[in-house]
TrEMBL record:
Residues 80-241 form the DUF218 domain. InterPro entries: Cell_Envelope_Assoc, DUF218, Rossmann-like_a/b/a_fold. The keyword Thylakoid does not apply. PANTHER family: ENVELOPE BIOGENESIS FACTOR ELYC, INNER MEMBRANE PROTEIN, PROBABLE PERMEASE. It comes from the Bacteria. GO terms for cellular component: plasma membrane. It comes from Sulfurisoma sediminicola. It holds the Pfam family DUF218. The chain crosses the membrane at residues 6-31, 38-58. This is Uncharacterized SAM-binding protein YcdF (DUF218 family). Keywords: Membrane, Transmembrane, Transmembrane helix. GO terms for biological process: Gram-negative-bacterium-type cell wall biogenesis; peptidoglycan metabolic process.
Length: 249
């Protein structure tokens, strides 16, 4: 397991919902006897934050601040290859007898397979195993693309621990074969940070995003639900990541 990955994710856990809101509530309870007015404010703020971030309408709005538009046919013709970034593994899956591609990764792979059939472009998969395991994300992605989606994979980048390394290590493989512009497949909320990383690595990107949630609003979207909290978490994670990337340069 990568120590850098572990520390980064531990810090992120304290900054993101639901733990950030629960910490406010916990701090309020700790101060209840000594500073009752402040304590009530902290408990109320934490509860309100958790409630608001759990609303699907809020999570959707936060994601839209990061999302661009779907790729168009003219832009696709300029690319020389397709790069798919991993979105997590399903570790030790009993029905598969080991590690396999996770749910978010499969959404990206499905779209990448469609793009590959439409364009005939060679395909690169990228993702390591910072949390341990037998197979890297890239290896599980290659297996899914070949066996489940029936499309070939030319390059496998399985050493990266984060988005910056996805870009750097993928760029090394691509440049050996003269590739300088790619169709980049990842979730739309992750695309801004991924594009910055690939630009820094010297690879031009045509974004080919998949979208988390674009369904019409219903009354249920104004009630707290787990998917609302997940959407808010994704958005906040990416905004923090963009700030961190800009700070690191």
């Amino acid at each position: 397991m990568s120590s850098t990955w572990l520390i980064t994710n531990l810090v992120a856990a304290f900054l993101l919902p639901p733990l950030d809101a629960l910490l406010l509530v916990g701090l309020g309870w700790a101060l209840w006897r000594r500073r009752p007015r402040l304590a009530r404010g902290l408990v109320g703020a934490g509860a309100l934050l958790l409630f608001v971030l759990s609303l699907p309408v809020v999570g959707d709005a936060l994601l839209r601040t990061l999302e661009g538009e779907p790729v168009n046919a003219e832009a696709m013709r300029q690319a020389q290859a397709i790069v798919v970034l991993g979105g997590g593994r399903y570790r030790e899956a009993p029905e598969y007898g080991g590690d396999t591609a996770g749910k978010e990764t499969l959404l990206r792979l499905r779209y990448a397979a469609r793009l590959q059939r439409e364009t005939g472009l060679p395909l690169l998969v990228s993702g390591g195993k910072p949390d341990g395991g037998d197979l890297s994300e890239a290896e599980t992605m290659r297996a899914a693309l070949i066996h489940d989606f029936g499309v070939p994979v030319r390059w496998v980048e399985g050493a990266s621990d984060d988005t910056r390394q996805n870009a750097r290590f993928s760029a090394e493989l691509l440049r050996r074969d003269g590739v300088s512009r790619v169709l980049l497949v990842t979730h739309a909320w992750h695309m801004p940070r991924a594009m910055r990383s690939f630009a820094a690595a010297g690879i031009a990107v045509t974004p080919a995003p998949t979208f988390f949630h674009r369904a019409p609003l219903t009354p249920l979207d104004f009630l707290p639900r787990p998917e609302g909290l997940l959407a808010s978490r994704h958005a906040m994670h990416e905004w923090i990541g963009l700030v961190w990337t800009a700070w690191r340069g």
